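Hey, resending since the last one bounced:
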Amino acid sequence: MSGPTPDEVRARLGPRLMAPDAAFNAPGFKFGIGAEERFLSVAEHGVAFRPAAVLVALITHEDEITVLLTERNADLPDHGGQISFPGGRVEDGDGGAVDTALREAEEEVGLGADGLCVLGALEPLGTISNYRVTPIVALAPPFESVPQAAEVANVFEIPLSFILDPANHRFMERGRDGRSRATYAIPYGEWFIFGFTARILIKLALLWRGEDVPAPPSRP
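The structure tokens again:
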């Protein structure tokens, strides 16, 4: 197998992840990137940052493990055309972050819970669109994607080995509404992953290496 095996992922990454309920119910969350990353308390900022969850699905093909990603429809009001994980806001009927992540993954791309193994969660992270997101990390078998037409334009996968290599991480300034914001990026072929999705992937790579707060990656 090219890159890490499922057993290596379980042994190396699993113990470094948080328990999903502990992450979802954490008293605070990280906001910002690199040296500007700071801790915000849920008690003070929880009302402004709505709870959400995403599924970081590691697809266990015979020859390699890949990371599942989607391209959002360009006409969506929030983050249209951007690369993202399956996920969304926590709904009243959800029992926590895992329920939300799995529900959204099945709705958005047709990935069901059968054969899926939840390894844990990354620490909750705040977004500039005012969500407090718990990323759920799981190993999942190969599947035939069924994109939700209203939200998902494309479903694709990137080798986990590519994501884990810090040489593929970038740091950039990206404008929004006339303002410039520092962000992470991971270019891969025709796909340009940036912003919150790249931030989660780089967090995953840091955890794999046993590191915590990164220096900004190289600029493109």
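The longest strand covers residues 50-60.

Sorry for the duplicate.
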